[in-house]
UniProtKB/TrEMBL annotation:
This is Beta-lactamase family protein. InterPro entries: AmpC-like, Beta-lactam-related, Beta-lactam/transpept-like, DUF7586. Residues 356-439 form the DUF7586 domain. Residues 23-335 form the Beta-lactamase-related domain. Residues 444-479 are annotated as: Disordered. Pfam families: Beta-lactamase (PF00144), DUF7586 (PF24491). SUPFAM superfamilies: beta-lactamase/transpeptidase-like. It comes from the Bacteria.
Amino acid sequence: MTTPQEELLPATRRALLHRIAVAQAEGRAPSLTATVVRGGRAVWHGARTSVDGHGPDENVQYRIGSITKTFTAVLVLRLRDEGALDLGDPLEKHLPGTGAGEATVADLLAHSGGLAAESPAPWWERTPGTLRPELADVLGEQPFLHPVGRRFHYSNPGYTLLGALVEKLRGARWEDVLRREVLEPLGLDRTSTQPQAPHAGGWAVHPWADVLLPEPAEDLGRMAPAGQLWSTTGDLARFAVFLTQGDDRVLSAETVREMREPAAPSEAADVMDGAAYGLGLQIQRRDGRLLVGHSGSLPGFLANLTISVEDDVAAVVLANCTSGPLLSSVGADLVRIVAEAEPRIPDPWRPLPEVASSVLELAGPWYWGTHAFALRLSAGDGLSLGPLSGSGRRSRFRANGDGTWTGLEGYYAGELLKPVRRPDGTVSHLDLGSFVFTRQPYEEGAPVPGGVDPEGWRGIAQSPTTGTPPVSRETWRTT
């Protein structure tokens, strides 16, 4: 339930309904259902169906395909946070003998492990998982198509390996670990590996005639961690809140933020499309808006989860057809409609609690050579450094507790920011990964790039007749 302040305006609700109605009609989907999340809870649900009086609500299950991968990634990151593995570990360290052991855990999460996109024929999505009882059956004789870590290449077998890794380190089946460690803590009781009534049936729609063909719902067996799950818009709405805010019972806010950061090398086409991949999450820039989430498809079903963290809006869209509406576009449009019609109202500005004088004295303008930067202290971002105008390197910083800070993003991610003090305790300059920031441009006496010319700053006299600066032989030689 939502309070009146959280409900969407009638015009916004109508725009959302119109968007999914167009998607269902033009995409010829037997049914399409969607939920929008704002402020940490579902604020709108809509559905369109070809059967009068049977519009699916937010508790009807659909198969969600590759959104399953995000759940598997959560399990792997839980193991990392507990210290059971490191993302840089080669798979061989924990799961020997696969033939794909040189790929690291991070490579597999980000689809940069060099593995094939699919398992060997027959097509795994439309055949029983019993045809691939072992990992060797999933990987085939030549698992690698590309050098490990060199390029993004989406791989379903890669997530099968991650599921097997979870089983090995937990000593339990992937689905049991998922239920115990993610579904139950987050209250996702309508998410399961097998369909539970009420659930939609999967259909193929003839490309040239308005007729249907039922699709089989195969158990994927070993491939389950890549695409097995069934869920609802209600459950996925709650999952979207988790992927935005974190939940210490499952993963911290810091770790889900890490999932949302690009982690795979991008192809040229991906760069042009504004697309990237994090740790189990797809990332795209659309209409100037950064979106994260995941899409999914299996015979008979399409699914999409789209989140704009900055706008605090998410959308879930599910349909029961093999092909038809482009749900990634629908999800992005639902987010855009809400974000533009009812933009997020920022939290009230609040002053910081007490700040140590040794930190406060760092605030203000600094110069790297002649480039002007500002170091700011704020309740929202903590310590941040960025150019005073225009574009340039900028980052937020995390305090280390010893008077230094570590960069959190961009060029300075992981770099150490250290105030360097004079014998009297005053700050001489900032050292940021060997970059020296001073209070004055090229400040005299400061380390490189301070000082430079002992004569200091000066102008160049103009010629009284031509208005051009006279250039001596000595000056010419140095220019």
